[in-house]
């Protein structure tokens, strides 16, 4: 995920516009929440949403996520895999299968 | 981004637990907002946050984003690149450089 | 808070437009998150925000909160007071004074 | 809404703990989003939620909203009424009745 060329493309895009100054981790975290809510707005009144709009908003959330992973010197794929490993332990198949309950209620 | 093996790993993780039934696009959109706020909580009272915690919450946001892109039959990298193209047009370098203003205020 | 006349005014506003059908608790919860993010957007790149815009977005969050309290047959002031009582216990003055730490870290 | 005594109660609660220093408008806006997502989490996997939990989280959102209105020298009820007036104009009954569409799509 975020192979070097997409990372570079995003970094160039930001550098060309001299926007790194605004991309503090805190501002990026706020931005992720802001875009996540624009994605949620596609479903404000029900489960059916315009796919094009969902696609756009999801792209915005992902973009800010990639900017933040990069800002923190992390690799998106690595942190997802690492977290998945811990989630396996919190949600063992035999307990969690078919259940949406949180791990402390399994 | 989300090379086939990470996608498969996530898909297997979900399938093993029979969780796809909960992963409607709407529920995934809600989940992205929920996790985005947990990430934001790292910065609730100021700009400095525990890096390990930020890393964890960011991984959760990314995970749900990847689950949603997959659920919609999209490719994460493709939608980010496509959106970046449109953002270039909305924020031409000569107008946007060094400015955080929204495109309709440039 | 939300004296009978403001409650009635909101209820009439909704009834006139036949909007109660959309105001399920879940949809109202989504709406609160959506508007909260529009409020947050006023501060996306820093701590200074346009007061008029903050005022507007805050009004929207409050409006949806009042619609939800009403939908659930609750009274806004009562639930805030009740919660404050419990928060007093979680954050006793002698431990919490001057500290932003969460109660389990006091 | 937020009659003088609830306002005072909240203000005293904050003052006793010397917490006003953390309550910048930006931090309060972040807090509102954070609590709104905890409310949303009650509905993460579907429309039915534990009423006690919803009540609690809703109280938290309202509390931070009242802290922010007070911090900005506003009155919660006044700003809701003012916004309602403008919303009447954006959503005239004859056009908006029974429709969840946004005002620019009516």
Chain-averaged pLDDT of chain A: 95
**What pattern of helices and strands is seen along the backbone of chain A?**
HHHHH
Percent helix range of chain A: 55-70%
Domain module tally of chain A: 1
The number of helices of chain A is 5
Sum up the overall morphology of chain A in one term.
globular
Q: Beta-strand percentage of chain A?
A: under 5%
The CATH architecture name of chain A reads Orthogonal Bundle
Quaternary class: homotetramer
Distance between the termini of chain A: 32 Å
Kindly provide the name of the CATH class of chain A: Mainly Alpha
The major beta sheet of chain A can be summarized as:
none
| Class derived from helix and strand content of chain A | mainly alpha
CATH superfamily of chain A: MazG-like
Number of strands of chain A: 0
Radius of gyration of chain A: 17 Å
Task: List unreliable stretches of 5+ residues of chain A.
Answer: none
**Which two chains have the most extensive interface, and how many residues on each?**
A-B, 61 and 61 residues
CATH topology of chain A: Helix Hairpins
């Amino acid at each position: 995920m975020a192979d070097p060329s997409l990372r570079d493309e995003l970094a160039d895009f930001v550098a060309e516009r001299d926007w790194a100054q605004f991309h503090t981790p805190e501002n990026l975290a706020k931005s992720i929440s802001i875009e996540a809510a624009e994605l949620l707005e596609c479903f404000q009144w029900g489960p059916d949403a315009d796919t094009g709009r969902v696609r756009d908003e999801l792209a915005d959330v992902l973009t800010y996520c990639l900017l933040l992973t990069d800002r923190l010197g992390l690799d998106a794929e690595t942190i997802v895999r690492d977290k998945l490993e811990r989630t396996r332990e919190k949600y063992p198949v035999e307990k969690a299968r078919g259940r949406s309950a949180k791990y402390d209620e399994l």
